[in-house]
Amino acid sequence: MVVATAGCTLPTFAPDGSGEDQPIAGRPSAGAVPGTTPDWRSCDDVPRDLVGQGASGMAYDCAEVAVPRNWGEPKSGETYSISLIRIRSEAQKNRIGSLLINPGGPGGSGVDTAVYLSYGEALGGLPTAVTDRFDIVGFDPRGVGRSDPIKCISNEDQDASFAAPPDPVSQEAFDSLVALNRRVAAGCGSKYGAQLVNFSTEQAAKDMDAIRTAVGDAKMSYLGFSYGTLLGATYAQQFPGNIRAMVLDGAVDPKQTYVEGSETQAKGFERAFTNFAAWCKATADKCPIAPDARKAVTDLMAAAAKNPVANTDGRKATSGWIFVAVISSLYSERGWGTLAQSVAALQQGNPKGIFALADQYAERKANGSYSNLFDANMAVNCADTKDVPTVEEIRKLQGEWRAKYPLFGAALATGMLPCVFWPGQRDPYPAGAATGAPPIVVVGTTGDPATPYENTADLANMLGVGHVLTWEGEGHTAYPSTTCIVKAVNSYLIDLQVPQEGLRCPAK
Predict the structure, then answer these.
(1) 467 flagged as catalytic
(2) 474 three-state secondary structure
(3) Which regions in the chain score pLDDT beneath 50?
(4) DSSP state, 31?
(5) Active-site hit among 448, 458, 467, 481
(6) What would the DSSP string read from start to end of 402-445?
(7) Could you tell me the pTM of the whole model?
């Protein structure tokens, strides 16, 4: 079971179809040649398909940029097509350049995220001060969304993965999960073979510099959330002189091993759930599972392990689906009330809310098909990772982490299984200083579940040019959440004013 992506920051919607009608990974895009200017075309259909209509006063244009499949062999002639969207305000003046966006994942669509961010601050989007000065450019990294998507996990295996017990205690249940992960990895290997190594973060970071050139920016302005901070940090180490401004919100620590990163997430989600439970107890009028939300959830999962409630679509609300719903709800404080209501409804035999939360996280459509979020997530994570534990080591960690992080520890341990059997070569990203780069702002949220706050200073210190900005809030990532955070980040992006050292923004 893939438990937690590094995290997408905004709600995303699965594309139409199950992936069978999407482009084959590695297919060159007509007319897109490395180093050429992109052929921009109006694409109002993208926001229309995602949301219903584009934002007022915004123009949407799309293009593709071809990049070498392997930057180590750029003359091979084999390319991937990177999809871009450029969103420009009709009120734009004194244009600074482009602001490149990545939402995380890995596997999240930067095209979709740029669209969501175009609707303005009142709807959780970018402030007018930013959209008046920058073109907002979103991109789907190689293998993601519209950029030659990697698709190698069947809908049935996705369902089985999410439905599986998050903490398979018996050896039989554990062996069943191992067999599922082995089968999924073998399927991806048989479909993509030697291509799998090409989906690494280091390759994607090089694509970002091709995008910078394509949009005509001498230096890049970048806003990366969650895994997007790892992508940004990797870029900063490879192209430090090509950066104008870089905001990394929701830090991943590149120095951590695969095991350390998984345990850090277990700790982060456990802390976030404890905060949710405390809110529930303190505001019982808004939380129907008060006063003990933790007991309500764990009791429900235990009951579901024996007799799961059936949904109208035939799925059963197993402990796995409940767990995914919990994970989903912790990405934003706005999800806390929804989780409480959904748990209360399931206690009464109605699993609809639980599946709504879980399906949002999994990017599962009503027809049972999935986007390629988790296909890409697995491909990137496994290509990046060289220090994968063995099955036996994971089994041992499962017990140790269960004791330390009762709700999330075991699941984050078994969540490492996909990469154990990954057939692709590995291409680990660098973990060092961005020597020669300008100041980089690293934003951390004290209650962040997916990229725990402790990572913030670690990433800033590793880069050597990082400056920490803290939000004392809940949920995954901070910008643009509150006036204090918005003011500090805007001043940096627009005027290159680095936030005051040690600045901590209040939760509200």
Answers:
(1) no
(2) strand
(3) 1-33
(4) T
(5) 448
(6) HHHSTTTHHHHHHTTHHHHT--S---PPP-S--TT---EEEEEE
(7) 0.93
